[in-house]
Amino acid sequence: MRIFKTHLYFIIISLLFSISSFCNEKDDLTKFFPTIEGMNKKGEVRIFTPENLFDYIDGAADFYLSYDFEKLVVLFYEAPENQSLSIEIYQHNNSDCAFGVYSRIRPAEGDFIPIGAQGYYEEGKLNFFKDKYFVIMMGFNLKNEESLMKEVAQKIAQLLPGESSTPGILNKFPEKGKVANSEEFFNRDFLGYPFLKKAFTAKYEITDEESNSFTMFIIKGNDEENAIYMLQSYLESTGNPVQEIEEQQYTIEDPYYGTVKLNWKGKYLWGIYGLNNADISTKYLKIIKEKFKDN
Length: 295
Known about the structure:
This protein is α+β, with helices and mostly antiparallel strands. It folds into two domains: 28-159, Protein Transport Mog1p, Chain A (3-Layer(aba) Sandwich), CATH 3.40.1000; 168-291, TM1622-like (Protein Transport Mog1p, Chain A, 3-Layer(aba) Sandwich). It is 28% helix and 32% strand. The chain contains six helices and 13 strands. The chain has helices at residues 2-26, 61-65, 95-105, 145-159, 224-237, 278-291, and strands at 40-48, 69-79, 83-92, 111-113, 118-122, 125-130, 133-140, 184-186, 199-207, 211-220, 249-254, 258-265, 268-273. The protein has a seven-stranded antiparallel β-sheet. It has a six-stranded antiparallel β-sheet with strand order 8-9-10-13-12-11, sandwiched between helices.
């Protein structure tokens, strides 16, 4: 019996060690730094967590933390003639949050490139995201800078796990008039309200008889109950309380965003603001409603 217990003890310890090793291996972001021909890795990989992110990016840490930041790894490369390259790989809790960070940082117009789900290059900088990872690269005095940074970024994207695609919910937005690369994701405090979370937005420019600029949004609740809570809270906060929430269009006079029209179905809310044309508003909200028909 004693031999059996001892044997069982070692089996349990071995299993725990295997599980721990597997988790650490999956969580090891350092393996995503590639070998770069002609450049050497400088120093050790620096690792930051939510507890010490402020030590690396004091002024911007709150921004990343608001998108469920989990870990950051940083590594520097160097080459002769003062050439250097820094690579930062941010890991977030999910792909929506990684997209959210990227969407809030990317320029309105730029050299967008098909690396990961999407990236863009500016002089001395290349950013991209893939799945739950957001990557920032910065080059200094690099020879053939653009081609080198794009080549390295492609290597990193191939090493990173997950899907190279933007959030599927973006396909629910109407295409006509949508401003290219204007989609964003707000994980918290949408429109300045702490109860409005997980909101995707897209900007529109439409010219018919007159020019109209407006924003559409889709909020993804955790479930139907959560979506109802957000809608009720928004109605109450803007002085429009209702006894019972129904699947219908609500018109809200927001003190900061003017007239906001929105609908609710299941765990989703969708709406529009910044537009005074009732016909266009109705038409565009209906398009999203049709796309949610099967949800």
